[in-house]
Amino acid sequence: MKFHERIKELRKELKIPQVKMAIDLGTQRYSVGDWETGRGTPNLEMLIKLAEYFHVSVDYLIGRDKFFGCENCKHLPK
């Protein structure tokens, strides 16, 4: 699974609107939309925030690992 598919899948599984996710991460809604359609990619700092937000590893987000696996990740408040 590609990054943009994985981000969208995780967000939808948790029923988080793009606007809320953007606010939680300190970014714009259009950035979240761009990530989910593959038109854009987050920088390294945001990629780490995304992994923490979804409580998954960066490797999982970018498709290098098929398991969630992230023992030290903290979930941002919803």
What does this structure look like?
The chain is mainly α. It is built from five helices and no strands.
Q: What is the H level of CATH, i.e. the homologous superfamily?
A: lambda repressor-like DNA-binding domains
Q: Provide the CATH architecture.
A: Orthogonal Bundle
Number of helices: 5
Q: What is the average per-residue confidence, as pLDDT, rounded to a whole number?
A: 86
User: How much of the sequence is in beta strands?
Assistant: under 5%
Order of secondary-structure elements: HHHHH
Number of domains: 1
| Helix percentage | 55-70%
The CATH topology assignment is 434 Repressor (Amino-terminal Domain)
The biggest sheet amounts to: none
- CATH level-1 class: Mainly Alpha
What features would you highlight for this structure?
globular; 434 Repressor (Amino-terminal Domain); 78 residues; disordered C terminus; 5 helices
